[in-house]
C-alpha cells in the first residue's frame, strides 16, 4: 500500500508541518517522526485496540456414572474336616498283629517278627513269628496270647499245643506261630516271605 503525504498549515502558530504516515504490521498505520514538530496522525482500517483473547472453555464434565449397587462379598464356604475313615480290615488286622507281638514279648518270647502279607497271600494279612525256649515255654506263650486278647479277639483254631514244638494260633486275618528255635530254623517261614514288609514292634512299656 502506498504511503500518503499531506501538508497542513499550523492553525495557531503559522508553522508549516508535514506529516507522513507509514503502514505498520496489520491494518494499522503508524506515522513517522513529523518534520518541524507537526502533529501525528494515525490511520487505521481496523480498531487500534487488540481484540481480547478468546477465553478457553473447558468441556462440560461428563455425568458421573450411576453407582453400581454394592454386592456383598461371597461368603467363604466352610467345609468340615473329613472324618477319619473307619479302620479297614487290614488296619484292624495290623493292630491285632501288634497286640499279639506285645503279648508274646510279655511272656518272654524272643525274635518276634511281624510279616505284612498284604496283597501277597489270601489266607492272612499278617504273620507273627516268635521263638520260645522249650515246649513248656511254647505253651505258656500261646496261652498268654489267647488270654491277653480275650475277649476282643478269639482264635478260630489252635494247633500243636500237645507237642509244644510249634503252636499255630489262627485269628483269621492274623496267624501267630510259636516255635522252638530248632523247628523255626527248619521251616524258615521268614525266608519264604523275604519280599514282604516287616512291621515295627513297639517297645514294651
Describe this structure in words.
By secondary structure, this protein is α+β, with helices and mostly antiparallel strands. It has helices at 89-106, 135-149, 181-187, 189-192; strands at residues 5-9, 16-23, 28-31, 43-44, 110-116, 126-132, 157-159, 166-170, 174-180, 197-199. It contains 4 helices and 10 strands. A 6-stranded mixed beta sheet has the order 7-8-9-6-5-10. A 4-stranded antiparallel beta sheet has the order 1-2-3-4, with no helix packed on it. Helix 1 (89-106) crosses helix 2 (135-149). The radius of gyration is 61 Å and the shape is elongated.
Observed structural traits:
single chain; 205 residues; alpha+beta; Beta Polymerase, domain 2; 10 strands; elongated; disordered N terminus
Topology of this structure?
Blueprint: E1 5-9, E2 16-23, E3 28-31, E4 43-44, H1 89-106, E5 110-116, E6 126-132, H2 135-149, E7 157-159, E8 166-170, E9 174-180, H3 181-187, H4 189-192, E10 197-199
Parallel strand pairs: 6-9
Antiparallel strand pairs: 1-2, 2-3, 3-4, 5-6, 5-10, 7-8, 8-9
Give the strand tally: 10
What is the overall silhouette? elongated
Order of helices and strands: EEEEHEEHEEEHHE
- CATH class of the domain at 108-199, please? Alpha Beta
Number of helices: 4
CATH topology of the domain at 108-199: Beta Polymerase, domain 2
Largest sheet: 6 strands, mixed
- Derived structural class: alpha+beta
Q: Helical amount among residues, as a percent range? A: 10-25%
The percentage of residues in β strands lies in 15-25%
Q: What strand order characterises the main sheet?
A: 7-8-9-6-5-10
Amino acid at each position: 500500500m502506498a504511503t500518503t503525504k499531506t501538508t497542513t498549515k499550523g492553525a495557531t502558530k503559522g508553522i508549516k508541518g508535514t506529516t507522513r504516515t507509514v503502514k505498520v504490521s496489520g491494518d494499522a498505520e503508524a506515522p513517522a517522526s513529523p518534520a518541524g514538530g507537526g502533529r501525528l496522525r494515525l490511520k487505521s482500517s481496523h480498531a487500534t485496540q487488540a481484540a481480547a483473547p478468546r477465553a478457553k472453555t473447558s468441556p462440560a464434565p461428563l455425568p458421573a456414572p450411576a453407582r453400581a449397587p454394592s454386592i456383598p462379598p461371597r461368603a467363604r464356604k466352610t467345609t468340615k474336616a473329613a472324618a477319619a475313615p473307619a479302620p479297614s480290615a487290614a488296619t484292624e488286622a495290623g493292630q491285632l498283629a501288634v497286640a499279639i507281638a506285645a503279648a508274646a514279648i510279655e511272656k518272654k518270647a524272643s525274635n518276634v517278627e511281624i510279616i505284612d502279607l498284604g496283597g501277597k497271600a489270601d489266607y492272612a494279612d499278617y504273620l507273627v513269628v516268635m521263638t520260645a525256649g522249650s515246649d513248656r515255654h511254647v505253651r505258656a506263650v500261646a496261652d498268654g496270647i489267647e488270654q491277653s486278647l480275650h475277649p476282643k479277639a478269639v482264635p478260630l483254631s489252635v494247633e500243636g499245643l500237645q507237642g509244644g514244638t510249634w503252636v499255630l494260633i489262627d485269628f483269621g486275618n492274623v496267624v501267630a506261630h510259636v516255635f522252638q528255635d530248632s523247628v523255626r530254623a527248619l521251616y524258615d517261614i521268614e525266608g519264604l516271605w523275604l519280599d514282604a514288609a516287616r512291621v515295627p514292634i513297639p517297645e514294651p512299656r
